[in-house]
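Figure 2 data, in text form.
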Amino acid sequence: MERYAKRYINMKASHPEIAKRMPHEALNVILNTLDAYIANHKDVFDVLDKAAYTDLFHGRLSEYEYMKPRCGYYCLEEIEDCIGNCIRQFAIIDFLLQEIANLNETGEREIPYFSNELNKGFERVNFGFRIINNHIAPIIDQDEIQEFDEAVNQVPDNVKQHLDKAMLYLSTNLDYENSIKESISAVEAFCYKYTQEGVLSDSLRVLLKRKILHPRLKAAFEKLYCYSSEKDTGIRHGKGVEHETFMPTYYEAKFMLVSCSAFINYIKGRFSEELEGTE
């Protein structure tokens, strides 16, 4: 099982969203949603709560068994007590989302309620986060969320993995260079499906030749690809490169993730049109 706590230890206090104190209204949304979830899935939450204590925060199982009858659910207590510590609260929520997703994937349960209800509540109280692909992420524009959600559907597993990593680096690891790298890699992997070309520039030439891509759009995306390869960004050349003057921030990484998701959706749509025209 992945050690989720390790990802959160390195979160930067200067992050434009994480640094903010969680509003009281958003905290109530989380706690109310968890209360409702427990009422409907108590047996599942018993397992998740124990896993959070032992696997997320590395506590001893014997301590948990001793405290549980006296203190109730550990996750609820931690979220409620950690006022002003969004990082710890988000770590718990992200852990629960991932574990619920794992239960769904193995076919043991079908539990969409938790993330759906959190999103409804966050939107209602204007909280600047949404649950996207089982991660809590600081992307608040509904169109951006829709682009990402559409992009991860009906694509090869390797493309989905790249997009998921890009979102993970953006929203939890705060590793903006690798987020951009994964976004570009998702496009490269997706285009390979249609062109059988391993390099994105070659794929774009094939798409242009097949009249899937307009010359100006090809040129525009080539410039984005070139941006990710520039030495002064540190994206594909690693940190510590001399003259590294344009290190990506959250906003560049977010822009690239949404743009690459939109490009994938565009290519999917164009090929769908092409197939319909041959029928």
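Caption note: DSSP finds 13 helices and two strands in the chain.
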